[in-house]
């Protein structure tokens, strides 16, 4: 077979700078790139946002021939192709979403030997024409993204991934498999099914994502908690994961009614509606998606600034993978996971009523226990999370809610023994509500009818309030000391782990939970300093305008991380702009001058007005008004004539804090008030309530 003529080989490092605009590899990337470039079979387990795609894109450029990338989602493939083309790389995709013209263009590029990366879905491997096509094209490498989809026990299982091993044998080429999270069992499945049982060179990279802030909160009016969390991050892209399809729809409606741009996504939607939601999320700044876990695998949007869970995920692996969709550009990002006793009961029931064999159910309970241990942790959450994945960070991270504000704890040995005793003395036949009534001495009709007011444990826990007992029982379930029994309608049954505590052989420390602490969500993190915020908003507005004109997702122009570096370093020449991370040669040529104009203009026009507000509350309010204005620069639908207030007008609004539309109109005029008034007044009201 004759290899097509391709670009002469170069070092992957030269492509890293010239094509992608990065001066150095991220930790762990270089060794993987070297192994793949050398043609060694490779399995890389890397954290989401750790730069997996570069680990096969760079070798594809450095090697002769075509690299075939097997990827699970059309939206992901199309976006990666667009991003590569923007960077000056010949790439294409063969998907069911292609027009005939798009398919013809890809096939022609293959025939002419110009294509370096060819993306396709695993389902295409079922076609008998695929292997001959790839053989004629001179395929020299197979890259498999989301390799855990080969695992039949995983919720992302794709049967057509099982065809990849045969494809490797038929083409006789090396294979590089990538995934963000895979336990030992899944890794073994990947080796067996993709590599034919022959151990590839394996890289297990650190799981830490230091730019992501971790936080959990006990459910207390959970819809309000989610709405408050989103309101504090207005204008930022986010995902809210929900346990049911119905909740995605109701929560998306509530977010929309609260003034957010929001939509829902779940597996029960028509395929066209799902594709439309995926496309909108990839393209639009500041969009929130309320979704089930059907949404997310393969989502490559790097500027998702937050991920919230309205319900407890099913395992610690699922939690890690889902929060990993935030901050893939390395910029500051946040998470919030809500949970309560009902979540724990529901997840236990899911496992116990599943069709998996007993040993698998036991392993799933263990994974859930690990997540509950993280939720009920007493100190640094990152240490708990990384410890589960086999890493041992030394010091507390200083970057989670428990490091921000360590919880109060108490010796709970006695009340836990009371709870266990009450369960045993009632035949382990009742739920937490009835057991709480017993230990508190509440003479309910149910208690009297069953004679439980005569138990030795009746009233022994009067020293704690009902809310405190609810927190104790939730933590008991979270520590897996008691489990709901599916054969007794969810009655709490003691586990073996509880017996040493009941016998007085072990003690236990729990958190002093209060409703107040449950309500105080994680603090909002600023992406840049107060002084640089107006410039960052102006750069985002320019990026949005260019993306709309080119019909591209905004992050394909530049990621948030690149714009943050621009705002902080303020390059004034193209030479300086070229040193910004993420500004490769092609993007410098395409966009460099336009962003330089924003930076030099913003320095002169915006900063003097902003500087006069330094040290005052009006300063941060000015920044929020500037960001809101940038979002509405072309109207709420992005289709209207551009409009903006001057820096002086924004400074007047921030200082005067008008309370109604009439007062706002006097400051910025009726036309500007019509475009921006509602958003400005909402910001002013939020600021007033916060202070």
From TrEMBL:
Enzyme nomenclature, EC number: 5.6.2.4
UniProt entry keywords in alphabetical sequence: ATP-binding, DNA damage, DNA recombination, DNA repair, DNA-binding, Helicase, Hydrolase, Isomerase, Metal-binding, Nucleotide-binding, Zinc
Positions of the Rhodanese domain: 224-277
Catalysed reaction equations from the record: Couples ATP hydrolysis with the unwinding of duplex DNA by translocating in the 3'-5' direction
Sequence ranges assigned to domain Helicase C-terminal in this UniProt record: 222-372
Membrane-spanning parts: none
Signal sequence annotation: none
Single GO MF descriptor: ATP binding
NCBIfam families xref list: recQ (TIGR01389), recQ_fam (TIGR00614)
Family: Belongs to the helicase family. RecQ subfamily.
Name of the protein in its database record: DNA helicase RecQ
Organism whose genome encodes this protein: Limimaricola pyoseonensis
